[in-house]
Design brief:
- 2 copies of one chain form a homodimer.
- Helices cover 68% and strands 3% of the residues of chain A.
- Chain A contains 10 helices and 2 strands; from the N terminus they run H-H-H-E-E-H-H-H-H-H-H-H.
- The first copy, chain A, has a two-stranded antiparallel sheet with strand order 1-2.
- The structure holds a DNA duplex.
DNA sequence: TAGCTCAGTTGGTTAGAGCAGCTGACTCTT
DNA sequence: AAGAGTCAGCTGCTCTAACCAACTGAGCTA
């Protein structure tokens, strides 16, 4: 009766006191008294809130209002995808398609509307990508930065965070599953093409560039991942 | 040292045993033995996993593998939005823009590609919406169903769930904040227009219809929500 | 046979004790 | 007097042990 309630009451406490991210929460004993619950129950509620990113706990230091990032969503998405994959579903492909669908839809609104500063930054990122490809280094982080910078032009922090979360979840799962990275040279060329298309203001071409980029990733996926132990749909029921 | 680990080990247990959603997990005493931890620690780990939707706990019955839905994401998004709003940010508007950006991007791929069966279903939903509007009933649920059915044509379960999650979070926050519902008649007309556009296969018109629909919601938002109690940014620091 | 009761299982809650990480003030050395 | 080491005190972390509450199913009763 109390547990579900405790979480709500702690959330309410945060809202009522207008606590911003990073602000300190009452200590466990204080919460016990304030909420009239035992230490254990308070801790379980805090653990749940921590899992949702609402609260941040630092051992020996205190409890604080969390960064409210989408990190927990990444966690959940990644696990869901791994679990689905290990049961023979094409969950990783679905995650990739989700990214493709959203990004193709968004990139067309960007075409010709990017501030010059962002375009320059993207140029630098692709340059770095080529440099990394040349010396055989991984370019995952740079790829992430490219996509993040690209959609920054939409001027919606939440939207950017969501896209980054999708990227993170996908990347995490792909590496966990031991997927092969794609050909660095091809990846570089495709990013360059995306950037050129956006700069030129040709929405259709930008969309096509994104689609091709994802098509490449998808191709790599199907050569390694879809080990089909029992791919039959409707395994049960 | 143990706590963060316990969650991982329980997740690993689920993966190793290929447990599907709804499958029973070991009882708390069994987990205590298997993980070599106290009941308390096990419970805290389970609570965190429950918050992430990975596990489902039923009092007096047992613990089960969760539905892996995006419900926790809704929770987190909603709280984040409410918290931001109460601190004077336009977080609710950002959430709406996120939906608009994604849906406008997606609806164009649907134009002309919807199976007739889905179109008929959408017809029925708009009919119901008009009937509800006529007798003054709320049409939130029908609106939700409309959007859900619309994007079912994309044949990506994950994508649909994400969009529904966004809808839920937005709707929850808007009602929590006491926002006024929009004019039912206008809403009906706009949904009819979206449907007609998709049926006709005119991608541009479909996009425009979606945009107009969201524009309507946004207008309603700005007349009621942005009560600015202390809208000054940088209230502290 | 239909319904009830009760014992057993499962998770929920409380209590109290001790462990572990961090901070800041105090003390001892240089 | 300045610096480094120590220690007391906060903080959250883990464990044990007991009891409460929800649900199930077997057995009893009508």
């Amino acid at each position: 009766m109390a547990a579900r309630d405790l979480q709500e009451r702690i959330k309410k406490l945060i809202l009522d006191r207008r606590l911003a991210s990073g602000a300190p929460l009452p200590t466990e004993p204080e919460l016990m008294e304030h909420l009239g619950a035992s230490r254990n129950s308070v801790r379980e509620a805090l653990k749940a809130l921590q899992a949702m990113g609402i609260v941040e706990i630092r051992h020996g230091f205190g409890t604080y209002v969390g960064p409210m990032s989408l990190a927990p969503m990444i966690e959940g998405l990644a696990f869901r995808t791994v679990a689905g994959h290990s049961r023979g579903e094409d969950s990783l492909l679905q995650l990739l398609e989700l990214r493709e669908a959203v990004e193709t839809g968004l990139v067309s609104r960007l075409a010709g509307r990017m501030p010059e500063a962002d375009l320059v930054e993207l140029d630098a990122l692709v340059d770095r990508m080529e440099e990394q490809a040349a010396r055989g280094a991984g370019l995952a982080e740079t790829d992430r930065a490219f996509h993040a910078t690209l959609y920054r032009g939409l001027d919606n922090v939440l939207l950017c965070e969501v896209l980054e979360a999708f990227w993170d979840a996908f990347h995490r799962v792909r590496t966990d599953l031991g997927g092969e990275p794609q050909d660095p040279k091809v990846t570089c060329r495709q990013h360059r093409e995306i950037l050129d298309a956006v700069r030129s203001g040709d929405a259709m071409r930008a969309e096509e560039a994104i689609r091709e980029h994802f098509g490449n990733i998808r191709a790599r996926l199907s050569t390694t991942a879809p080990q089909a132990p029992h791919t039959r749909h409707n395994e049960r029921v």
